[in-house]
Design brief:
Layout (H helix, E strand, L loop, with lengths): L14 H9 L2 H10 L16 H12 L5 H8 L3 H9 L14 H12 L7
């Protein structure tokens, strides 16, 4: 009988695996590595979260341009589920003190502040 030689696959080159190979019987090592394929068990990289600008664009495309979620997803390079999830979110309610001046009052105040003051004696 010839000697049995086991060559580790190209994706199993760590020192820990070699130490495991020395400890475990040969048959158990072969079985455990035949089950796994290269890259198996590696978590996929998550896409980055939607920025506020992207969310604004999604809402604009949906409500102003009347685009369907599938077209929006294609245009932004996102998945349809993330677009639908974004559209289903409730917009935050503005809280706090109401604005004291209207835009017209702000313009009037700015004009008044720019006019030179005349001091009388």
């Amino acid at each position: 009988m010839g000697s049995s030689v086991f060559v580790l696959p190209h994706y199993c080159d760590s020192k820990d695996l070699f130490a495991l190979f020395l400890i475990m019987p040969l048959r158990a090592v072969i079985k455990s590595h035949l089950k796994k394929k290269p890259g198996q068990g590696v978590a996929k990289e998550k896409p980055p979260r939607m920025t506020a600008e992207e969310k604004r664009l999604v809402r604009e495309m949906r409500h102003d341009r009347h685009m369907c979620p599938q077209d929006i997803a294609h245009a932004l390079g996102r998945s349809k589920s993330s677009i639908t999830r974004c559209l289903a979110q409730k917009r935050p309610v503005k809280m706090g003190r109401p604005v004291a001046l209207s835009p017209k009052q702000i313009v009037q105040l700015a004009r008044w502040l720019r006019t030179p003051m005349q001091i009388t004696r």
